[in-house]
Amino acid sequence: MRCSGPPTTASAGLGACTRTARPLQTFTTAQSFPPPDRPHLRPAGGSPKPVGAIVTTIPIKNIGQVDIRSVAAKLRLDRLRVLIGPVVLVALWQIGSATGLIPEQTLAAPSTVIAAGGELLETGRLQEHLLVSLGRAAAGLALGVGVGAFLAVVAGLFRLGEDLIDGPMQILRAIPALALVPLAIVWFGIGEEVKIFLVVFATAFPVYVNTHAAIRGLDPRFAELARTAELGRLGLVRQVILPGALPGFFTGLRFATAISWLVLVVSEQINATSGIGFLMTQARSFAQTDVIVVGLVVYGLLGLVSDRLVRLIEGRVLPWRRTFEAR
User: Fold this and answer.
1) Which of 148, 136, 189 is nearest to 172 (CA)?
2) Where are the domains of the chain?
3) Where in the cell is it found (predicted)?
4) If 255 and its partner were Cys, which of 27, 80, 206, 269 is the partner (CB 3.0–4.6 Å)?
């Protein structure tokens, strides 16, 4: 940068400065003294006059400008980085199968698994069993989340509710859901009810624990502010407590979604005639490891998709919640 030229009237002795690298647009702002809104500071018989002007040079090109292409490239790179681990794992698996390190009767090669999956898709068997599993998981998850959230709100808002609910919930939470299989068969038989019951039992606890902790962890100053604003008991619950408990609820929902698929894997093997678990049990009888792996992959993809869906809903419901992003 170099300064040249005589002082101008606007710059009042400061000199005109120009940048030789590239032309820049300038803004000139003038300030008067005394300010017009303070007439008591004016000299007698006078009016405020500009005594000077400040010339500010701002590179307009750099203001609010975002390189869209670089952002899009970064997003594509982040998505590709997620696939690095699975691709390397599958490649090592295929190499081990091709070299004989992994026997075919122990674990089918990835190429064989892909072929088996394609055959199941062509015959429609995979879609048929998948719809049955989705229905069971959705029904059990909906009931479990509803029960867990309701009990958490009652125990979180009322001291008597906590005394009556929290203790039994903590005791039942320590019991594995799969340990209830014999008792559940006695209660519900071997039909659809036992499978849905196990999913309900397993998914209610993560929702209860996280929602209850979120309600109890709210800042008491919010409640005091609500009382100052005269919101009332119902307004306090609706506008302060429930919105504040939503982050904890969604955390529990993510755990419950993953647990529902874990429990469904086993519950669908209890005298079932349909579902992905039944498909895997049937393949086990014929030592079809490729079909078993197809079922495991389907369960894994269902867990991934459902978790992404919950996170998407969380982002829409809680747009104000800022989260840390790794760099």
Assistant:
1) 148
2) 2-38+51-61, 78-107, 113-317
3) Cell membrane
4) 206
